[in-house]
Amino acid sequence: MAIADIPSVIDTALDIVELRHKRRESALMQLVNAAQRRGVVRDDGALIAALLRRERLGSTALGKGVAVSHARSVAVAKPFYVLGRSARGLDWPAPDSLAVTLVVLVLTPAEMSAEAHLERLASAAASTRLQRTRHKLLESDAATAFALLRGTPS
Amino acid sequence: MSALRTVLELHDLDQLLELVRDDERAAKLRRLGYGLEGVAGLQRERERMIATLDRRWAVLYERSHGRYGRGITTVRDRVCQGCFVTLPTSASPPPGEAQLHLCESCGRLLYWR
Fold first, then answer.
1. pLDDT at A64 over 70
2. CB nearest to A74's CB, from B8, B34, B38
3. Spatial distance between the Cα atoms of A103 and A88, rounded to a whole number of angstroms
4. Exposure winner among A23, A147, B39, B72, fewest CB in 10 A?
5. CB distance B5–A43 less than 8 Å?
């Protein structure tokens, strides 16, 4: 294996961000900025617009302090997750009205199929259902979080 | 807003609408816990965006969307990712810049950067 191939093998395609803001819009911007720093965003403005439109379709907060925001976008170059953690909790309309402390941003390039995007989304949402996993996601490193979100044992 | 940005946003909005208009996929999203009550609002937003777009780009976008199911396609290494034909060097945008382009082979609207 060439040395140039090694980063792609160990790349977890996930970044973890400690969220500083309380507003949903600011939190999404912080998550997109993290993805942009990893070189997976072609156009940050277009991606933020897509995520805000997704929120207008219906809130992506699923309850139990979790939101799984997502975009299948031409502004995304590679599949990527960003895990946002908020100690204070975010103002994010949720079915159970609990403040959101864990945000998973699922980014899928437009070149991938809608089914593939839904699978990634379902896997990420399923991983946050168990309290045990939610606690792990709040404390884990990127490699463990990536394995948990993809539904593979860490 | 530039034509490029409007087209990018329009494309992503169409992808989202396509996802929720499909009964099976929408049911799957609801099972995951998502509410999808804002479809009509997004549809109106789409109409507004098309109306603000320069007529030339709007026609090319709608034609590409109608024919291929996607209004815009990316370019990678000077190759159209829709038909995989190499595009002429002379047409490439300046380094670091993004442009809307038309693939002369397949007629897709291209996001080239």
1. yes
2. B8
3. 13
4. A23
5. yes
